[in-house]
Amino acid sequence: MGKQKTPLPFLRRLEDFFIPSMCIICDGARDRDDNWFCQICVDALAVNYSRRDACPRCSQNRRKRECACELAWDYPFEKVLSAYDYDDTVSAIVHHIKYKGKSQLAYHIGFITAPLLPREFFSEINFYIPVPLHKARAQRRGYNQAEYFARGLLRGLGHDLKMLRTDLLARVKNTGTQTKLDKDERLKNLDGAFTVSPGNIIEMTGKRVALVDDVMTTGATAEACTEELLRAGCASVRVVSLGKR
Ligand SMILES: [Zn+2]
Ligand SMILES: [Zn+2]
């Protein structure tokens, strides 16, 4: 047998760089069928999902906290679907997709999460719109994690990627980090942050939108986006997020 030529080391290094051979969450040996996780972590995600007694409207896990949405629902969106409770695993994933440049991980988590989710939530959706980043932040990060997550979801659901629309809603105000603000402060801070340009209004009139975000905290961002989408004539907005904090 002749000596095997190895034109691939560079590619392999590249692959290891982008796709580490250890589970990104626990450093365990990565599952052969999964580019990012070990089997234990994949199972942990499925358990996280299946143990949620999620309210069909607000997606609050009723095992953890009573939901009050039947008494007080003051959101402009129709309902929320959060795939996972915000545990250590989900928090690690979110950290990687937001701050560690792991755009493909955002895609992957969408792709493997899609089969867990109730199909009827997506049945009449016309457009999937990821929560947009401000241009300055998108440039710094190099990608929008919500867009990659949405892309993975669509692929996992078997829907046409043409339904993903990143051109309809823009973030025109750089609000900075909102982590220290409460909901009212966030809403105030987000006033005028999202906009649909008048040229898109005809296309959006009467459409049903799934707004896609990575993490839902107070719901203020989703609320601000929804208000703008409804103002532009969309018939309804549903929110889908990876995790509910
Ligand atoms: Zn793991
Ligand atoms: Zn509820």
Strand runs, count: 6
Q: In which range does the helix fraction lie?
A: 25-40%
CATH architecture verdict = 3-Layer(aba) Sandwich
Shape: globular
Instruction: Work out the helix count.
Output: 9
- The termini sit apart by 58 Å
Let me know the average pLDDT: 90
Structural class, judged by helices and strands?
alpha/beta
The third-level CATH topology is Rossmann fold
Low-confidence residue ranges: none
CA-atom Rg in angstroms: 19 Å
Largest sheet: 4 strands, parallel
Number of domains: 1
CATH class: Alpha Beta
Q: Order of helices and strands, N to C?
A: HHEHHEHHEHEHEHE
Describe this structure as you would to a colleague:
- This protein has about 240 residues and is α/β, with parallel strands linked by helices.
- The chain has a single domain (about 55-245), classed as Rossmann fold (3-Layer(aba) Sandwich).
- It is about 35% helix and about 15% strand.
- It has helices spanning about 10-20, 40-50, 90-100, 105-115, 135-140, 145-155, 185-190, 200-205, 220-230; strands spanning about 80-85, 125-130, 170, 195, 210-215, 235-245.
- It has a four-stranded parallel beta sheet with strand order 1-6-5-2.
- Helix 9 (about 220-230) links the parallel strand 5 (about 210-215) and strand 6 (about 235-245).
- Helix 4 packs parallel to helix 6 and helix 7 crosses helix 9 (about 220-230).
- The longest helix is centred in the middle third of the chain and has 13 residues, at about 145-155.
- The termini are far apart.
- One zinc ion binds near residues 55, 57, 58, 60 and 67.
